Recover the amino acids of this structure.
């Protein structure tokens, strides 16, 4: 009796456990019905957007705004052949099970145990849709999340709704999603017109869109098509009433099917269209976050969007980009971009982001107009403009293009040079900017201040220069930041309008896209002093001023007035040319999207030829007007070397602009004396009119103190060095006594203790310095060093 009671108690406890498990399972299974996902929650609106150029010519149709071709059709507008094909290939018993196919799960488990590896999957169409809506890692927790979402879908939608949502999201290769987008892209027909051969091919792609890419792996796709057709025979979708279902499937698989080129649907300006589509603001529902991200739809509009693009010009620029890149292929150049703006309206006339948008192997989808790259020297005009505006330099100022060194905390000594590693010495502002000299540009930025210059660049619309002034340092004027071609073009449009900034416009006001949505600068503004902008334009359009660096007959020289600036980033990774006439601004970039350096390519050989071709084409029927001269400035003759009123010794006289208030100084001063910062540069120059006009003692410097070490008197020598000597011989006088020498520009003198005055005489020219030699109390650690102004400085042997 006790044994029976014990058994009954044990059975009762077991029953409770079983009942509890059953109740928990039922609750878990019923929970999705408390949080169902309905068809309206994941509805996709019609996404196709049609674009035309400014004259109504079609540019193309995008099926979404995020570079994914997606178009939605109801289930009754899809060919039954495709519906049967996708069901046979992916889930033959879709209409006969719930979210999960338990038979398939058991079968797959047995096969995996037997083969000790996964042989086949058991995912249903509902589970695949869940994965499309919310991609999760293929882990146990990820699979549980996928099942949970599948149950929620089944709780809120019927089978046709689930299938409709599924076929409209199928990955069909590249950036194509959904059967309608695939039918339109590949065959130029609606999904309702797909025949069995086309339908079976399309149904073969989603299993592995990259592996079965129709453009790259045709044979693989044909093999997968045979599998799909065989499954259709097995599932009775290809009727037994046909002559023989299997032979009919075989004939279908051998039927010739032609896939259209991927360019179908986009006639011109693909980068521009995708960029423009992305400017559509999200709907209030999307903004409010009332639905989770993976369930959000995308608002679209079927109206034709009339853009500012000029299609013939766009196609010309696209062709020129491809031609220029082809000609530079041997120099490891693969990518380019170009932008054309109407200066009067700010309208974007042409927008080319890469040589071939549809070449995915060469990163063709990258948009070189919006990509951030180092701008090289293209920012220099703006630092000169700001310095002139603030009165830190004058139009006739002389800037020192000589070696300069800047101590930067926590970094190596900064010594800017040009890529030629040569220095011009004294350079007028015009020459320094026109020839893109680096050292004068850094000196000007030092006067302006990096913080002040950065604020001006922000004002001009360089929104991506968002680091601190300390981050960029003095290299900002040489391109140490990153900007886009779009930002550069916008800033140069402001320059072309002499400081009057306007937004860049991409569509006309009667288009369905709000104009504010596409303006990176939403309001117009005017920068002060039109005269300074006119002067900068005058300099950049001076073909003779830039001849030293670029020659007179470079591709920058057009047969009509144009202002232009080139730029090359470090290690020759980017080349830029940005310029304008009174009518148009053209900005071009040539480089490599992958960051590889080009070989023997600079701004004038990389981006400039493309700029040249576009500019000539724009003005082939009508030349632009001349640029107006700088208002309120006066032109006066100056010596090309000194920038001062010409003297009889001047060998080259040019015209330069002056402020009216500087005319008095011009009349009274024509003595050209270079300060000591030129000494190092002068010492390396050969005989020239510049050196001759600056007769001076370069070594020793006035006030130098030298130490003479005991026992080293015969070994320690000081070089007397002179610049600016016209005659063959120089008289050297030391403390009033003439030294017995026939030396011309230098001699060596044995050190002797005392205070010394050294004088050099050549004809009527003379220069004098004083220095001191003292006995040292210790033996030197190194030979040939002296002390001057409490600093150690080198001394030649």
């Amino acid at each position: 009796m006790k044994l029976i009671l014990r058994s009954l108690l044990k059975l009762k406890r077991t029953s409770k456990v079983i009942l509890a498990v059953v109740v928990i399972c039922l609750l878990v299974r019923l929970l999705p019905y408390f949080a169902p996902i309905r068809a309206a929650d994941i509805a996709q609106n019609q996404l196709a957007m049609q674009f035309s150029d400014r004259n109504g010519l079609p540019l193309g149709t995008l099926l979404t705004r995020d570079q994914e071709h997606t178009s939605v059709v109801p289930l009754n507008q899809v060919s039954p052949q495709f519906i049967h094909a996708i069901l046979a290939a992916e889930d033959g018993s879709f209409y006969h099970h719930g979210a999960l196919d338990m038979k398939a799960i058991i079968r797959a488990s047995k096969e995996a145990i037997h083969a000790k590896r996964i042989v086949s999957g058991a995912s249903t169409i509902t589970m695949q849709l869940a994965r499309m809506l919310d991609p999760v890692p293929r882990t146990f927790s990820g699979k549980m999340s996928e099942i949970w979402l599948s149950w929620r879908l089944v709780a809120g939608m019927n089978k046709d709704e689930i299938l409709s949502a599924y076929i409209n999201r199928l990955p069909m290769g590249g950036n194509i999603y959904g059967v309608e987008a695939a039918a339109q892209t590949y065959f130029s027909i609606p999904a309702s017109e797909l025949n069995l051969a086309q339908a079976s091919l399309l149904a073969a792609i989603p299993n592995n869109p990259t592996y079965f890419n129709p453009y790259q792996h045709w044979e693989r796709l044909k093999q997968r098509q045979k599998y799909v057709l065989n499954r259709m025979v097995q599932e009775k979708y290809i009727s037994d009433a046909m002559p023989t279902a299997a032979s009919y499937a075989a004939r279908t698989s051998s039927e010739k099917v032609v896939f259209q080129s991927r360019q179908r649907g986009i006639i011109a300006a693909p980068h521009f269209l995708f960029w423009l589509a992305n400017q559509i603001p999200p709907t209030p529902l999307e903004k409010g976050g009332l639905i989770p991200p993976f369930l959000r739809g995308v608002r679209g509009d079927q109206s034709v969007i009339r853009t500012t693009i000029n299609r013939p010009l766009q196609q010309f620029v696209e062709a020129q980009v491809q031609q220029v890149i082809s000609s530079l292929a041997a120099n490891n150049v693969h990518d380019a971009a170009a932008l054309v703006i109407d200066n009067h309206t700010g309208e974007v006339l042409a927008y080319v982001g890469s040589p071939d948008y549809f070449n995915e192997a060469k990163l063709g989808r990258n948009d070189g107009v919006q990509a951030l790259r180092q701008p090289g020297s293209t920012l220099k005009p703006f630092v000169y403009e700001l310095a002139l505006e603030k009165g830190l330099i004058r139009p006739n100022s002389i800037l020192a293009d000589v070696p300069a060194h800047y101590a930067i905390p926590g970094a190596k000594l900064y010594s800017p040079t040009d890529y030629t590693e040569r220095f011009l010495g004294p350079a007028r502002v015009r020459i320094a900017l026109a020839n893109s000299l680096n050292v004068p540009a850094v000196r000007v930025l030092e006067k302006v201040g990096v913080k002040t210059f950065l604020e001006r660049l922000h004002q001009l619309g360089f929104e991506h220069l968002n680091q601190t002034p300390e981050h960029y340092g003095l290299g900002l004027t040489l391109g140490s930041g990153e900007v886009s071609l779009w930002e550069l073009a916008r800033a140069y449009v402001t320059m072309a309008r002499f400081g009057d900034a306007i937004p860049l416009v991409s569509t006309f006001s009667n288009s369905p896209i709000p104009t504010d949505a596409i303006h990176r600068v939403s309001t117009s503004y005017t920068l002060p002093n039109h005269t300074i902008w006119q002067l900068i334009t005058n300099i950049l359009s001076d073909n003779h001023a830039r001849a030293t660096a670029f020659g007179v007959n470079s591709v920058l020289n057009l047969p009509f007035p144009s202002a232009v600036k080139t730029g090359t980033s470090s290690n020759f990774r980017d080349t830029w040319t940005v310029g304008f006439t009174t009518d148009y601004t053209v900005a071009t970039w040539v480089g490599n999207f992958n960051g590889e350096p080009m070989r023997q390519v600079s701004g004038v050989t990389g981006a400039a030829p493309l700029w040249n071709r576009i500019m000539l084409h724009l003005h082939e029927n009508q030349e632009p007007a001349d640029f107006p001269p700088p208002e309120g400035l006066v032109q006066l003759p100056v010596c090309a070397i000194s920038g001062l009123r010409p003297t009889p010794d001047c060998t080259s006289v040019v015209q330069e602009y002056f402020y009216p208030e500087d005319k008095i100084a011009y009349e009274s001063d024509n003595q050209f004396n270079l300060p000591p910062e030129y000494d190092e540069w002068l010492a390396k120059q050969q005989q020239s009119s510049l050196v001759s006009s600056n007769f001076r003692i370069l070594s020793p410097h006035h006030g130098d103190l030298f130490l003479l070490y005991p026992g080293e008197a015969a070994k320690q020598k000081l070089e007397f060095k002179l610049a600016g000597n016209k005659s063959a011989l120089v008289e050297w006088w030391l403390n009033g006594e003439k030294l017995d020498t026939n030396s011309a520009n230098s001699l060596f003198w044995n050190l002797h203790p005392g205070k010394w005055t050294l004088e050099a005489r050549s004809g009527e020219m003379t220069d004098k310095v004083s220095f001191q030699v003292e006995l040292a109390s210790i033996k030197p650690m190194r030979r040939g060093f002296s002390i001057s102004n409490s600093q150690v400085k080198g001394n030649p042997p």
